Amino acid sequence: MRPALLDPLFASVTSLPGVGPKLAVLLAKLTGHEDGEDARVVDLLFLPPHSLIDRRTRPEIAFAPEGTVVTIAARVDRHQPPPRGNRSAPYRVFLQDGTGELALTFFHAKGDWLEKALPIDEDVMVSGKVDWFNGRASMVHPDYMVKVSEADNLPVVEPVYPLTAGLSGKVLRRAVEAAVSRLPHFPEWLDETLVRKQGFPAAGDAFRRLHDPRDAPDMDPQAPARRRLAYDEFLAGQVSLALVRRNVRRTKGRPVHAGGRLAEKILANLPFSPTESQRNAVADILKDMASEERMLR
To answer: How many helices (H) and strands (E) does the chain have?
Structure first.
């Protein structure tokens, strides 16, 4: 019987804020549930990120490395909407700092939304990959755009999860964060000496670190948080197997009375005459069944 402490973790993902029926279907698909079966909160806890994006590199525009994720602070200089009637042309917003100019490039963008998000003369922070062409820096569809006054809302290190069609990384991360917030305080079930020797964090802390990696070593399978969760999963499997074996031993066997009468009727009704070897094989089977019957008594 499951402890009541764990009930919130086995609730449907639809109990999480922002997770409606459509998103629940995508999460069920991602976590391997059958059609019509909701994913549970615990399924998101056990969905590990496979990599991370580090946004801590903050160069000035002129020194932004090619093809690398960076975070740049600059002032919005001007907007350049596409020509009227030319939907294929991009919308560009130009930022400047003391070293150069960065063009933020958007395709099929809504100009009124960009004007509100990036007002002229506003100090902003943008994060994404920078490309250089003919000595000009460009960032296509930045991952994040925030005002400098709201810089705390920009994630410094971002975990990256597996996805499925129709599910974005940002939406999934919000759902995972909501699942992590449901974690109760677990009593420690491992031996204190083992925990200290292996450097294991507490179970709840292991889940939190799994979904909030700080550096590349946190993604290593040998990282303390991942080793702790792997050990717990293996231990749970072994305990479950031991309980099943105990119950099987307690179950009395069903005696089989092998007198041989039915065997003789079957042999007599065969459309062929059994060979001597076949009769000996049947006799050996009846002998083994009789031995089992004696052992069960």
So the answer is: 9, 9
Return the pLDDT at 246. 86
**In this structure, are residues 206 and 46 in contact, taking their beta carbons and an 8 Å threshold?**
no
Encode pLDDT of 152-183 as tens digits: 889 999 999 999 999 999 999 999 999 999 99
Contact 258, 289 (CB under 8 A): yes
Cα–Cα distance, 92 to 87 (Å, whole number)? 13
3-state secondary structure of 200: coil
Burial classification of residue 77, based on how many CB atoms lie within 10 Å of its CB (0-12 exposed, 13-18 middle, 19 or more buried):
middle
pTM: 0.74
Do 74 and 124 form a contact (C-beta atoms < 8 A)? yes
Q: Tell me what the mean pLDDT of segment 253-282 comes to.
A: 84
d(CA 282, CA 261): 12
Q: Is the pLDDT of residue 275 over 70?
A: yes
Report, in angstroms and rounded to the nearest whole number, the Rg of the chain calculated over CA atoms. 32
Would you state the structure tokens that stand for residue 271, as one six-digit string? 């459309």
Q: How many Cβ atoms from other residues are within 10 Å of residue 142's Cβ?
A: 22
Separation between Cα atoms, residue 272 and residue 278, nearest integer Å: 12
Handedness of CA 239, 241, 219, 49 (dihedral sign): negative
- DSSP classification of residue 15: G
Residue 38 near residue 68, CB atoms below 8 Å = no
| SS3 category, 104 | strand
Distance CA 90, CA 209 (A): 40
Q: Where do we find the tokens 């979904």?
A: 211
Owner of token pair 């160069």: 59
The continuous run of DSSP H or E covering 192 comes out as helix 192-198
Position 123 pLDDT exceeds 90: yes
16, 179 Cβ separation under 8 angstroms: yes
**200 and 228 Cβ atoms separated by less than 8 Å:** yes
